[in-house]
Amino acid sequence: MIFRHKTISKRTRLSCLHIAALLLLATFTPPASAHPHVFVDYGITFVFDQQGLAGIAMEWAFDEMFTQMLLDEADLNRDRDFDQREIAGIKTGAFDNLANHAWFTHLLVNGQPYPITETTNFSTFLKDGQAHYSFFIPCPVAAGETPQKISLTLYDPTYYTDLSLISEGVDYRGPIDRYHPRHEETLAQEVGFTNAPLLPDGILLEFNVQ
Amino acid sequence: MRRFLLLHTLVLTLAWPALPLNLPSTTVVAAPSVAQAERPFQWRRLYRTAQQKLVRQQKILRKKMTGLMGKMHEQPLGAPLWTFMGMAFFYGMIHAVGPGHGKIIIGSYFLSRRGSLKQSLLLGLLFAVTHVFTAVVLLLIGHALLQVSTSSLLDQADQWLGAFSGLLLILIGSLLVVRALRGPSAHTALHNSLNQPSELKGLCSIAATAGLVPCPGAALILLFALSQQLLVPGLLAMLALALGMALTVSLSALTTMAARGALLHTLQSSRWVVLAGRLFGTVGGLIIVTLGVLLISSGNS
Questions:
Q1: B243: alpha, beta or left, given left = phi > 0 and alpha = psi -120 to 50?
Q2: Contact flag B150-A73 (C-beta cutoff 8 Å)
Q3: Which chain B residues contact residue A159 at CB under 8 A?
Q4: For B120-159, how does the pLDDT look when each residue is reduced to its tens digit (9 = 90+)?
Q5: Do B259 and A199 touch (CB under 8 A)?
């Protein structure tokens, strides 16, 4: 036994107690989350149309090791590329399952949670040894004179997948001159997602009719 | 006062996993209050920052390991191989720091029973080797014999081995609880320093059971090595990875042992020492049972 039971001073006892408390707290970290095994770098494009925001186009780049696993699973003809049949297989076999996790995407529209139930235009391709997913999340928000605020973050609550925004990875598309969109890249906790695990990236978009 | 502090410590320890610090949640709050957003709890922020740094470090290491594997063909026994091995060891070390069931099971085991430095090292090593090499064996069998993809094999292994491991954990945890509750009489217990020593058989079974679920991180590295026709360096890296994990898990076990010892050290009355010993035994066993249930339910979800 590391500590023998013998007569000791009250002060030593209290010190032991504090040390014990700290050590136990350090050891028993919350078990609900896992450590990451898949790393994703993502870029996003806010897409506008004649009414305002139409949705968000995403591009995810997976790390090389997970890419190999995806190739192992889905590249049926082993040509290190994905054809239409293989893309369809990835969609049904992997991508569609992410619907259960809302594609790890968390959105607030003017402070209210916006449920993500569908995605469109899914595709996947290989670039520089990394598998990429590209898809679109519809999120129509009409523009007015009052600024509309969209908060966005991506995280996997189980932390199996780590998602990070690539540097200068936010872009716009569509008639943006009408809406003067501007955004801030910060932490998820600072744009309204106080329960987000660790410190994921957060984006706050604002736009209004000029 | 001392008893109150002890109680407070125990309550904190037990409540820690339930705190909403890092738990999955789809709940988001409405419009952020600037004051709230700018002043999160410092301890929470510190914890998150530390974990985030560890995650980033793992990402960097994985990227570097990928690059090194590309250079190994030119210098098979040169610097890339040794750097790769060193990185695999370091990756194992920090990968195991993240929250996971292994450390908690082993920690709970040493909370429930007395342990030694040698036992904690043995348990850490046994757990890490089982955790890594279950993945290695599955991957190699899948590739060589079954022509099955790694991810589907890991998924199935997760489900079946997870359930099996969960059942065994429930059994072991229950035994620990029963032993702690029935235990020797207060008189005998006092003579035994109230803490039943961990037996070798028990140590091996807990380590093997906790490590049975394959490590996806190890599988990913080995799979990439195989795709580069680097079987031997890949297997050596698995060994380095397991040793790195073992170091962290052993340190975690030692931490629990030290904490347990320190807590018992604070108690003056022998009656309290007996009660605390029994309480630790029961709590440790119950945590293992709970994790067993969680493993089974996560496999079925």
A1: alpha
A2: yes
A3: 22, 98
A4: 898 899 999 999 999 899 888 887 776 666 676 777 777 7
A5: no
